[in-house]
Fold:
Amino acid sequence: MDTLDLMQWPAFAASLGAAYLVGSTDKGRRKVGFWVFLASNALWIAWGLPQGAWALLALQVCLAVLNIRGLFKTEIK
Structure:
């Protein structure tokens, strides 16, 4: 397994951790969760580009937009 393949595991862990944090009732944890989701989006994009995983890349870009929206909504409340 090369370094690129190993990148999937931190992306996986970040996605799970972010989902846990975003589900919190605490505003601060939710905010951190959206930032962690954005980091996971970046990791998945970094993995997917050289792999040519175009559907995954499109999904991560769309999810990043939604995570940015979530950050702004968390700030408002």
